[in-house]
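Before we proceed, please read the two lines closing this message. Tell me what the token row says about the fold.
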Amino acid sequence: MGFSILKTRVAQEALGRLLAGYLRLVRRTNRIVFEPADIYDHVRPELPVIYAMWHGQHIMIPFARPDWMPAASLVSRHGDGGFNAVALRELGIGSIRGSGARGRRKVREKGGAGAFLAMVKRLAAGVSMVLTADIPKQARVAGPGIVALARASGRPIRAVAVVTSRRVDFNSWDRASIGLPFGRCAIVVGEPITIARDADEATQEATRLAVQASLDAVHARAYALVGSRDPGAGLRDEQEARRTLAETPA
């Protein structure tokens, strides 16, 4: 019954407002450094942009948005999506409900197709999109969805990392982190990655790998700037090793 109560609209509103208030506190009490220092001078002429982030490293991403930049984020229809959408709203960021998945049936269930079209429309209206590049349960492996969005919209992709020196790291599938007050914060943004609308499969795969590499790079740099190490740095290799082991005949 307790979990049912948490799914009610009233509870989702309360939790979302609480999360937004906490994130404001963390932002106010952390000393923030940007890299590049003049990143917004570079970004302004490119807007709207597709911002890529890793699952588990997304909680602090609202720090990266200046007030003058309209933005929306892809938010899951299930689980914690409700209060995350409320928190984003309180922080001035719109939301599109839906998420990526493997297989056509799963895509329909999670609202992926409708969300994709909604994102293309938002980008056409001048709203930057923020979304995780990896799909659930495949941490640190960029999926094809964000590349497809760049092709359909004609907008560039930029990887972004927002990390704090004081934080809690969880032992979750994506090694999620949430920042704590009174520390240092690094916001690192990668170079723009573009792809033509008529790009062939080889180019799409190369772009996917470029997004993946850029996300790895900005996170490694951001953690280095706060004197720490990315808790999810080896996840992709660990997952691949487990997959290989499972497929190896006994």
Observations:
- Residues 98 and 115 are 5 Å apart (CA to CA).
- Residues 201-225 form the longest helix (25 residues).
